[in-house]
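Bumping with the actual sequence this time:
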Amino acid sequence: MEDATPSPAARPLRADARRNRRRLLDAAIALILELGGEPSRDAVAERAGVGIATLYRHFPDRQSLLREVALDVIDRTVERGEAALSESSSGG
Protein backbone atom coordinates (compact mmCIF):
# COMPACT_ATOMS: atom_id res chain seq x y z
CA MET A 1 0.00 0.00 0.00
CA GLU A 2 1.37 3.44 -0.97
CA ASP A 3 1.68 6.27 1.50
CA ALA A 4 -0.87 8.98 0.62
CA THR A 5 1.00 11.69 2.53
CA PRO A 6 2.53 14.18 0.12
CA SER A 7 6.28 14.66 0.28
CA PRO A 8 7.51 17.78 2.09
CA ALA A 9 8.46 19.33 -1.25
CA ALA A 10 4.95 18.77 -2.60
CA ARG A 11 3.17 20.36 0.36
CA PRO A 12 2.63 24.11 0.28
CA LEU A 13 4.50 26.06 2.93
CA ARG A 14 2.63 27.43 5.93
CA ALA A 15 2.34 31.21 6.06
CA ASP A 16 5.02 31.52 8.75
CA ALA A 17 7.38 29.28 6.79
CA ARG A 18 6.83 31.39 3.65
CA ARG A 19 7.61 34.54 5.66
CA ASN A 20 10.76 32.99 7.11
CA ARG A 21 11.91 31.85 3.67
CA ARG A 22 11.33 35.35 2.28
CA ARG A 23 13.21 36.90 5.22
CA LEU A 24 16.13 34.52 4.67
CA LEU A 25 16.32 35.32 0.96
CA ASP A 26 16.08 39.07 1.61
CA ALA A 27 18.78 38.83 4.28
CA ALA A 28 21.09 36.85 2.02
CA ILE A 29 20.61 39.32 -0.83
CA ALA A 30 21.26 42.30 1.46
CA LEU A 31 24.43 40.72 2.86
CA ILE A 32 25.72 39.82 -0.60
CA LEU A 33 25.15 43.39 -1.75
CA GLU A 34 26.73 44.88 1.38
CA LEU A 35 29.69 42.56 1.84
CA GLY A 36 30.12 40.87 -1.52
CA GLY A 37 30.91 37.21 -1.90
CA GLU A 38 29.11 34.53 0.05
CA PRO A 39 27.86 35.53 3.50
CA SER A 40 28.02 33.00 6.29
CA ARG A 41 24.81 31.15 6.96
CA ASP A 42 24.97 32.30 10.58
CA ALA A 43 25.01 35.92 9.39
CA VAL A 44 22.05 35.29 7.07
CA ALA A 45 20.00 33.69 9.84
CA GLU A 46 20.89 36.48 12.27
CA ARG A 47 20.00 39.21 9.74
CA ALA A 48 16.70 37.45 8.99
CA GLY A 49 15.89 37.18 12.68
CA VAL A 50 15.52 33.40 12.63
CA GLY A 51 17.47 30.52 14.11
CA ILE A 52 20.09 28.63 12.16
CA ALA A 53 17.85 25.54 12.18
CA THR A 54 15.22 27.50 10.25
CA LEU A 55 17.81 28.39 7.63
CA TYR A 56 18.90 24.75 7.31
CA ARG A 57 15.28 23.61 7.05
CA HIS A 58 14.80 25.83 4.00
CA PHE A 59 18.32 25.64 2.57
CA PRO A 60 20.22 22.53 3.66
CA ASP A 61 23.52 23.72 2.20
CA ARG A 62 25.21 26.90 0.97
CA GLN A 63 24.72 25.94 -2.66
CA SER A 64 20.93 25.64 -2.31
CA LEU A 65 20.77 29.03 -0.58
CA LEU A 66 22.83 30.75 -3.28
CA ARG A 67 20.84 29.04 -6.04
CA GLU A 68 17.55 30.25 -4.57
CA VAL A 69 18.97 33.76 -4.11
CA ALA A 70 19.93 33.86 -7.79
CA LEU A 71 16.54 32.52 -8.91
CA ASP A 72 14.73 34.99 -6.65
CA VAL A 73 16.67 37.94 -8.05
CA ILE A 74 15.97 36.78 -11.61
CA ASP A 75 12.25 36.33 -10.87
CA ARG A 76 11.99 39.79 -9.32
CA THR A 77 13.85 41.34 -12.24
CA VAL A 78 11.55 39.70 -14.77
CA GLU A 79 8.45 40.77 -12.81
CA ARG A 80 9.64 44.38 -12.67
CA GLY A 81 10.54 44.35 -16.35
CA GLU A 82 7.12 43.00 -17.29
CA ALA A 83 5.43 45.62 -15.10
CA ALA A 84 7.47 48.38 -16.73
CA LEU A 85 6.57 47.11 -20.20
CA SER A 86 2.92 46.91 -19.26
CA GLU A 87 2.95 50.48 -17.92
CA SER A 88 4.73 51.86 -20.99
CA SER A 89 2.40 50.09 -23.42
CA SER A 90 -0.70 51.33 -21.60
CA GLY A 91 0.49 54.92 -21.78
CA GLY A 92 1.06 55.21 -18.02
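The C-alpha coordinates above came from a reply further down the thread. The mean pLDDT is 89.
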